[in-house]
Amino acid sequence: MGYVVLARKYRPRNFSQMAGQEHVVRALTNALDQRRLHHAYLFTGTRGIGKTTISRILAKSLNCTGVDGRGEVTSSPCGQCPACRDIDADRYVDYIELDAASNRSIDEIRDLIERAAYKPAVGRYKVFMIDEAHQLTKDAFNALLKTLEEPPEYLKFVLATTDPERMLPTVLSRCLQFNLRPMAPEVVREHLALVLDLESIPAETGTLRLLSEAARGSMRDALSLTDQAIAYGGGQLTEAGVSAMLGATHTGACLEVLQALGRGDAAGVLQAADVLRQSGASASGALDDMAKMLQRAAVEQAVPGALEDDSPDAAGLAALGSAFTPEELQLTYSIVVHGKADLALMTDEHAALVMVLLRVLAFQARTAPPAAPRSAPLRAPSPPSRSVPATSARVDVGASASAAEVSRADAADTVRAAVTQAWNASPVAASAVAPQIAVAEPEAVEPRQAAMPDKVAEFTDAPAADAVAPLSTAKHVEQANLADLAELANRWDAAVRRLAEEGRLSGLVKELAWQGGLVAWKAGPPTVWRLRIAHESLRGGALKDKLAESLAQSFGVPSQVELEAGEPGDTPSRRDAAERARRQAQAEAVIREDPLVQSLLTQFSTARLVQGSIKPA
Ligand SMILES: [Zn+2]
Fold first, then answer.
1. Is-above-0.70 flag for pTM?
2. Cis bond leading into 373, ω under 30°?
3. What domains are defined for the chain?
4. For ion ligand 1, residues whose CB falls within 5 Å
5. DSSP character for 190?
6. Which residues of the chain have pLDDT under 50?
7. C-alpha to C-alpha distance for 327 and 167, rounded to whole angstroms
């Protein structure tokens, strides 16, 4: 038999083994002993504190037949009768656990209600446990209500939720509610000591304190951290080892979050944030560390080589620098730093952390062409009501321009109208670049707002889908000379944009495609694409096979991707960055040379072009 994780192996089998939650255990024990059985129970509380465990013990209590087969409903199930053993082994036909997070629709609930119509197959009671019940859709809740109100006498419901406030009041009122509390660190520590003793794993005293504090009241997290620590320490727990493990998990997960943000990968962000939560990191500490990483990545981005090579995360931070544009780095930093203030406003610190991270993604404009390697660059701030839908440049009319001199709003409107008019008349307006003028009121932008760009600008000139070069029919892998390399780069760029437009690239495969340089190509089948890629992390795993699969599906030819280490040269991602820089320079020139902008700058002595506010369309 394989290794059974501690949380599973040491899941309490009866009420007396439950660590913590005495108030719930006592109430349920009394109710069972006195046969005062309610038909629906609601267990609330954060994850990993025993909701499912108590539900299973309750199901055993209701169905236990005792070692002699003649037992009754009991508060201390025997653990040996078929009912007890089958419920423990998760194969008892009359005990059904439904995770509402993945079965939230009305159809699943109808199925469940249909099953409710049949008497228990083997037991005294059917017990339906609906976990994360707040996730049920409203229709599903409503379908459930009637059964919940008047269930057949052989049916018991157990609902569990981490978020009772999202439950319908009509459901709440039909349930006997128990609030499970996060476990005190001492309770967790004692339990860990017991488990490690049973496992004969030596542990320094301090390790239990570290692990129990990191678990933040969740016994399940405490046990899975202990599993990790045992693996990390090669079978023993030292204080230094556990401390290093918790720190390493934390740092790695913070970096992972930022990398996922750089990719615009929401699922990756959530996954890494979950690792952070499990590592016991405080949300505030995590944001602090992310801010530090972003700062160092920005330094490395501005001055390559500035980070000391010996710092363990130097490579990761350098990669981070190339995953964000300088503006994106700044904005992400700003949201992360300001996000710390949000944490105190929410009872669930981790949920608040997730919101802060999703905010970064929300502000990555969604309007990039589908071919972009990730969401379009983040926008710098401009007051939403004062921008017109086109490219933005901000003319700041100056902090000291008094109201007597000029009504700022009027000036803004005048300027906007005038510049827009001039713009429309300008020959450049016909090109891809269209300006947007917004006039900022100095000091009017709160620091909080400053982190929130609007989304008015958008890329309009997406690369043409038919730009894909016809594939050559050469039967040998080309030994590329310079001209060939340019032709290969064109071919790869076109192929990647095609895959992106067809929605065939996601996550790390997308990174591999955009950051790879094509150095050789052979006609198929299978078509062979040899890419050079700098990031080691992108060369591993099944990424190249997934990319080959995308190529095969897009071009309809079996394809193979080979990877080699090295500087990739001309890549789609670099072409994209160069194109952005070109358009930025063009937009800046257009705005600067505009006669109306120039006259405005002359007219108001305090007016100036706001650096960095000029955005290409
Ligand atoms: Zn039993």
1. no
2. no
3. 6-179 (3.40.50.300), 185-237 (1.10.8.60), 246-362 (1.20.272.10), 384-462+591-609 (no CATH), 465-576 (3.30.300)
4. 64, 77-78, 81, 84
5. H
6. 366-480
7. 41
